[in-house]
Specification:
Blueprint lengths: L1 H5 L1 H29 L11 H25 L3 E6 L5 H31 L1 H14 L9 H22 L3 H17 L13 E5 L3 H4 L9 H19 L1
Antiparallel strand pairs: 1-2
Length: 237
């Protein structure tokens, strides 16, 4: 059965992650319906699969491009391979980080700041807050937090501005995190989990991202910031 393949601890972790995410969505639904008294549009099911799929694919492509450039510049190499049985902890981490963080940062923080102060201030403040919340992560730094603010904070807020729902933002967040850790074996915001590829990160940390992960690398910063600005252009239009 599943236990013989994955192990009891991994299944417990994944179950706990699913319960946590379901609780977070339920609490958000209650807040929107009971306190704000508005439609629960952020998780509307119509069109959800397309937006979520677009987000996951975008997150994967952005990470693959970033890792590919880092590898070409000598900052990343694959040394071994693992079986898919090690992916459950990565999946659990991905679910919690993508769903709960997007509810808090885009569903609540961005939206409420936007209603009070406008879209541009909401974009800037939510991006700064998103970067700052990663300062407590292992191997973090002001440079890493600043990179996350620019490349992820701006991009995720911008795609939320385009869709006005959370599906695409959750998808990008999930696709990015899962592929970074689960496929390429690179730390996610300083947190190291085993992935399908056993990787060696070497050389200048500005190129590779060092022990914090590819998010702190110059290639990821450029690729994701440009993508975020592209989404922002669509939002403005």
């Amino acid at each position: 059965g599943l236990r013989s393949v994955f192990g009891r601890g991994d299944l417990v972790r994944l179950t706990a992650a699913i319960i946590t995410c379901a609780s977070g969505i339920s609490a958000y639904w209650l807040f929107v319906r009971a306190i704000e008294r508005r439609a629960f549009s952020d998780f509307q099911l119509k069109g959800a699969a397309g937006e979520l799929g677009f987000g996951v694919l975008t997150g994967f492509v952005l990470m693959a491009l970033s890792i590919g450039i880092i590898a070409l510049l000598g900052g990343y190499e694959v040394t071994a391979f693992r079986t898919p049985a090690i992916l459950l902890p990565v999946l659990a981490m991905t679910l919690i980080s993508s769903i709960t963080e997007e509810i808090v940062m885009r569903g609540i923080m961005f939206r409420f700041i936007e209603m009070a102060l406008g879209s541009w201030i909401a974009l800037a403040l939510s991006a700064i807050l998103f970067g700052a919340m990663h300062m407590g992560n292992p191997n973090s730094s002001w440079l890493a937090a600043g990179a996350i603010a620019l490349e992820a904070g701006v991009m995720l807020a911008a795609i939320y501005m385009v869709t006005r729902r959370l599906w695409a933002a959750i998808g990008i967040h999930a696709g990015w995190n899962f592929s970074q850790a689960g496929i390429f074996g690179v730390p996610v915001s300083g947190i190291k989990l085993p992935g399908l590829l056993v990787s060696n990160i070497q050389g200048d940390a500005l190129i590779s991202g060092g022990t914090f992960g590819a998010e702190a690398s110059l290639p990821a910063l450029i690729i994701c910031t440009v993508t975020g600005l592209l989404f922002l252009t669509f939002a403005i239009k």
